[in-house]
Amino acid sequence: MAAVPFPLVEIRSVASAQNEWVALLLRPAQGGFDDQTLRMMFGAPDLLAAVAPLDCIVLLDSPAALTPPVLNLMPPSRVVLAIASRSLEEEGMERRMAELQSNGYRVLLDGPLPAGIKPPMALRGVSRNFSNASGECASLAPASLPALFGPHLARGVDTLACMHACEIAGFGWFSGAYALDDAGTSPHDHDPARHDDGTTRRRLLTMLALLARDADSRELEAQLKQDPALSYHLLKLVNSAAFSSGTHIASFGQAISRIGRRQLQRWLQLLLYARQQPDGPPNLLLPIAARRGAVLEALCKIDGGDRDEQDLAFMTGVFSLLDRLFRMPMAELLDGLRLPDDVEAALLAREGRLGQRLRLCEMPGPNIEVLDGAGIDSLAWWQSQLNAYHWAIQVARNV
After folding, report:
1. What is the pTM of this model?
2. DSSP string over 191-250
């Protein structure tokens, strides 16, 4: 009997209004979750370990998939259930949701209530899908959500305008591509790189060029000394729990010897996305860039790439958001960096093997045909995603 292939599952980040990742949203690429799929996902030890300390939000068509063997694998302290409101039309579903809540699960009612159906007495939070519904976002009234415990989830939020409207309406968790929206800035965004006189931008671009040509450490140190914010973040990073050995690191030279030049270059690439003030909000582009870099590195390793090729793949993923970070054309940003031709082709036109892998990272959820065409099976894709999200979560917590 042939083995059942691993299910293709979409993973989306969920952030708070303060730009911090709070959970990952899991949804099937096609159809709905059944008990077999859920057992495969949660039966392996890596899912909850990979996303810790974040919660998993599982999008369900009905509580029927939550059989006793499945629930045994889903600890209530780590799992939020977003259940389609239309399932309330089925007999006994309101009672089933109440049972789940009494067992400690947080239940979000996903979608508007069907006609003639009253809100469950035990309702504590709601979820809404705003994909392709910008008009619906615009029509939300301030504080229009019911006075429930929450937090309420707005998913499919792909513009900053929609995110702002949802926040004013009372939503506290947000999932979608709004972090990539160039139409404006978040009210929580105080990133001086977007509002300064250009000095910080030029210095960061200079550091990019130095990193790309494997510059001497003293050249990098000279640039860092001119930018207190980057220096602060680097020293905070190497003194964090991720690297701490009980020895306080006080200089750039010590940092190099402590974590190694290869790892240091990776962190410097990611520090380009760091919050520019110690008390400022996180930049939501940071974990997205970290995830892309980790996915491209993992796929390069699967392809048989050596260590140097994996480093270039990682850099390609991280640099793929620089045009959005600096709000400049990618061609201008790459001018003078002298990156390898395949990296430039991927960043400018999504061409070549790296470009193909980068397109996979940018898709909301590639289907099985796309993965087959790329020579990647669903299990390898799942594992690369878990590893990448684990890395992105750690980066966001330490930078």
Report:
1. 0.87
2. -GGGTS-SHHHHHHHHHHHHHHTT--HHHHHHHHHT-HHHHHHHHHHHTSTTT--S----
